[in-house]
Amino acid sequence: MPVEPPLPDPDHALAPLAAHDALLLAVSGGPDSIALTLLAARWKLRARKRVEIATVDHGLRAEAAQEAAQVGEWARALGFVHHILRWEGEKPATRIQERAREARYRLLCERAREIGASAIVTAHHADDQAETALFRLTRGSGVAGLAAMAMESRVDGLALLRPLLHFRKTELERLCAAAEHAFIRDPSNENPAYARVRLRRLAHTLAAEGLDAEALLRLSARAARAEEALAWSAARAALELAAERGPGLFRAEAGALRALPRELLLRLLAAEIARIGGGEPRLERLERAGQRLAEALAAEGRFKTTLGGACLTLAGGALAITPEPPRRRAEITPRP
Q1: In this structure, which topology does domain 241-329 adopt according to CATH?
Q2: Which CATH class is domain 10-220?
């Protein structure tokens, strides 16, 4: 009979949290976040840190309020301060999961600041990572998208930590079982109206063809390495590029831009558009504009377009990026 691997060690699993003195754990009550709570309760550094727990009640299911209250009871039984954060107001009719995610992180960031926490901690795990990579693969994401989730990122100026990304869901469920701790099953995780649920149901078929969770995790890790190299190269190219940069202005000679690899040109454009226009263009639109600009650079021609709140103009042997006129900018959604 095969021997089961050891349960996750709290001090090893939560090592990424050690740099922060105050943390807010996002706990929905599912097995993953309950496992995170159990690990935090046994963390050796817990007594030296301020660790509090928050549960977001999105108000999308009748049971949500009762479940949030139940998580509060579990959290307090383990010695944690617990907060229930409610998504108030009318709910959108479309893109509900995306809007709920935006609301969730907004509420978590607000409460984290209120309690003086410098980091929000979530219970995303390896199966979530594989699912995210698959989801983005089906949407034709670039390298950054295929890299899926990072162990540490930023959200609204705060650290967003995902310490459980190296653990499989089964390991976290075993941890709950070993502690004889109950958890909540969210029925929306079985609702085929959501794309992720439909993809989840294809798992066995995809695994039979070799695209299982392990393969997706390899893809994600390799994409993350490539993204790191590309980001480094883009930052270096931007630093070395002879360009005029100021408030509301970027100007560079066409010859210098013509020498850049296409991917680095796109990343340079994206960074300057975000800085000057305040918008973040969709990758597809950025790629189309980049293609037209590259063709104009090669032909030593002219080019003009607006993107992300910025105006791009290639003329007189130079590219200038400036803010869009006010009338057009009113139509641009600013970056969060």
Answers
A1: 3.30.465
A2: alpha beta
Q: Is the pLDDT of residue 190 over 90?
A: no
Question: What 3-state class would DSSP assign to 9?
Answer: coil
DSSP 99-162: HHHHHHHHHHHHHHHHHT-SEEE----HHHHHHHHHHHHHTT--HHHHT---SEEEETTEEEE-
Q: What is the pTM of this model?
A: 0.87
Average pLDDT of the residues in 168-180:
96
| Average of per-residue pLDDT values in the chain | 93
* Mean pLDDT to the nearest integer, 24-50: 97
The CA distance from 65 to 74, in Å, is 15
Residue 336: Cβ within 10 Å count: 9
Higher model confidence: residue 87 or residue 190?
Answer: 87
User: What are the residue boundaries of the structural domains of the chain, listed by start?
Assistant: 10-220, 241-329
Query: How far is 56 from 86, CA to CA, in rounded Å?
Result: 6
* pLDDT tens track for 10-30: 999 999 999 999 999 999 999
| Cβ contact 64:55 at 8 Å | no
Query: Are 184 and 32 a contacting pair, CB within 8 Å?
Result: no
Nearest to 26 by CA among 103, 108, 88, 97: 108
